[in-house]
Amino acid sequence: MKKLLSLIAIAAFGLTTAFAQTPATTTPAKAKTVAKKEVKTTTAPVKAGAKQEAKKVETKTTTTATKVKADGTPDMRFKENKAKAVTKVAGPTKKDGTADMRYKTNKAAAKKN
User: Fold this and answer.
1) 72 — alpha (psi -120 to 50), left (phi > 0) or beta?
2) Would residue 71 count as lying in a domain?
3) Domain range holding 83?
């Protein structure tokens, strides 16, 4: 009896793994039709005597000593960012150095941030 149940279990396992990798045969999706719209742009004729003013585009770049990741958060691999991350806790702390939130002073400081 145990042999029969084990054979059925092996067969079921084999069938499920065989069908797990085959793609499902579904009806092909209709191709989307893309309608292109033409946009006509017209420019006013420039007079020969008029001067053309060139607009100067200013780009503001801030050079800071801190290095940031692509999402804008400071990159903690650098020494200057690690030094800035150290904050002084207002009230009592736990053994690991984090603020103990059982005290009113630490709760008020957390709400400010």
Assistant:
1) left
2) yes
3) 64-112
